[in-house]
Each structure stands twice: as C-alpha cells, then as structure tokens.
Amino acid sequence: MDTSDPDITFNDQGVCSHCQYFDQSVVPAWSFFRTGKDELDPVLEEIRSRRIKGSRYDCAVGISGGVDSSYVVYRLKSWGLNPLIVHVDAGWNSELAVDNINRVVEYSGFDLETLVVDWDAIRKVQLAFLESGVCNQDIPQDHVFFSGLYRIAVREKIRSIVSGSNYATESILPQSWGYDATDRDHIKDICLRFGAGNAYRRIPTTRLYEQLVVYPFIKGLKTYAPLNYMNYSKAQAIKELNTIGWRYYGGKHYESRWTHFFQSYYLPKRFGFDKRLAHLSSLVLSGEITRNEALRQLEQPLYDQREIEKDIDFIAAKLNITRDRFIELVDETPKRDYTEFTNWKDQRDGFYRKYYHRLRAIPLINHLIGTA
C-alpha cells in the first residue's frame, strides 16, 4: 500500500495503518490464521440447525462466477449442505462468468435461481452515477447483488446466508477508495439529481431499517463466511475449480465486464487508485504470496489498450450512448466525494454504537439470530 490511500499512516517503525489493522483486528477474528486448525464443523452445524421447518434449503449463497463464490459452492457439496444458489444478473456478466456459473452448478447439482434485473432501470442508475462523478461506480451493481439475494432468502424461508468473502484475499481495502454499496438513500439522491428519476425503484434495493432491524432481528438472517474457518488459498481454489472446467478470468471481480473496466481503467485514470495494491497486499499478509511477488505483478500494465478500446465500445453501446459521450463522462465529469450526496453513514454507525448490542442482549432475539 502507498499514499494513493490519503488516510494511510505509518508508525515509528514504518509499519502502515493497514498492516496494523490486520494485526489488531483481522488476526483476532480469523480463527484459522490464529490456530492453523480447521474449525469448520461448528459453523456448518450451526447452519444446519438454523434451517426452518418446511424450507427446502439449509442456506442461500450468491454466485458471480468469480473465484471465491464459485469455490464456496464447490465446497458446499462436500460439506453436505443443501443451499439455494442465487445469481443476480445486473447486465454486465462476461461470457466466461456465465460459463463458470453453469459449470459449478452442474457439478454441485444444487438448485440455481437467477434474478435478472430490469436493464433499463440499472442502465439509468449507472448513467446517473457516471454523471455524479463519485468514486465507487460499482455501487449500483453491488447493491442489487445483495438486495436480490436477501429478498430471495426471505421468500424461501432461509435464515443462513453463506458468503465467499474472506480475510485471505480481502483483508485490505481503503475506505477512502469508495463509499459503501449498501446505502439506498445514496443511490436515490444521485438518481434524482442526475436524470434517473425513480429508476432506483425498479431494481432490488434495501432500506436502512431493513438492513439493521428487519433482516437480522425479525427475519433472523445471518451471514457465514466459512472460508475463514479453513485453510483457504486462492491458488489452490483455482486449481480445484479447474478440475470441473471452471476458468480464471484474470483479476479480482473481473467476471463483470463493468467491474473490469471500472477497476482497471476508471479508478486509476480518474482517482489514481490501483485496487491491485489492496488485493495483493491482502495476499501478502495472508502468506499466499511474497511482497516481491506482489511487486513483480504490479510491474505489469493494468490493462491492454486494445482490450480497453473494446470495453469502451461495448459499454457505451450497452448504456445506449455514443462513444464520445461515454469518454466525456469518464474523463471530464467533475470528481465528487460521496459526502456531497445524501448518505446514511452516521445513522448506521450510530445504530451499532447505541442499539445493536442492546438488541443482542434480549434472549429471544439472540436465540433467533444465533451466536455471533
């Protein structure tokens, strides 16, 4: 990591704030890293025990076609769980991502439900975000991913969500590089200011009270990250997935055509943020690769100019605007911070400070949502 994160600090020994965060916050929470022992069984048993009578499934898991989500589904088969696999199609899937999803689902034999988002609506929301000039242009896509998954889980009477998120590949990500994708009010304000109108109402969204109260305390939804309880290696995961015909796409979250453009071109060109720094730093801290290996990877160009030209043509056509207009949005829109728009960061943080632990102290609620 470097000072492209404006919030980075260094102590007297030259250790950056991200490494300090890893040592002080991630390591105590990461059971396998601390103990070197597989502690999956209690987690899997808890998921089984929370299955609602009459539901066909133990849990729900979202799949994108990327490494982490694909590997979780791959392992759920050997763990003996029966999940509902959910894919939320926001319109940006690469052909490789679709093929990877099909390979994993075919191998596992699990049920798959695909929620196709209203493309006209998501297109208008995405254009509004480009007009806004905010850093995190992945918010519309990411928001519908988790909102769609939660809706389907509640409909199917599923209380356990299994996630591919993990400390091994995701422990480092500067907050200054983009705002939280869960904020519906933020999406609404940008849509109303930049010509998308009420398009946000036609895509899956989640209100603050639903995230903080309804889903965890009334519906009893709880998210599990089993990769944190085992010896998870990205390289090994790719190797195992290759045995069922799954193919790697070349970068973290590059299974999305939009995210590939956003991370490899938009962010570094507009804001000077190279997300490889965070992704590779996570792998260094987890012991997956050495720092020298990470530096060698960073010497490689972020993108191939011919590929970016193709991406620009593809995205402009898909958004139904001219190439010149798209380049203008990417290159000339004034940069704005998320704080210039409505956001619920203070409300959300205040809830966790004041009320979350009080609610968890109520025996009935604590029994409903399970142990932390």
Report what the structure shows.
- The protein is an alpha/beta fold and 372 residues long.
- It is built from 18 helices and five strands.
- The protein has a five-stranded parallel β-sheet with strand order 3-2-1-4-5, with helices on both faces.
- The protein is globular, with a radius of gyration of 21 Å.
How would you summarize what this structure contains?
It contains 18 helices and five strands.
Counting helices, strands and paired strands, the structural category is alpha/beta
Q: What's the overall average pLDDT, rounded?
A: 92
According to DSSP, the number of beta strands is 5
Low-confidence segments: none
Q: What is the global morphology? A: globular
Order of helices and strands: HHHEHEHEHHEHHHEHHHHHHHH
Amino-to-carboxy terminus distance: 31 Å
The largest β sheet comes out as: 5 strands, parallel
Share of residues in helices: 40-55%
Tag the structure with descriptive keywords.
372 residues; 54% helix; globular; 5 strands; 18 helices; alpha/beta; five-stranded parallel β-sheet
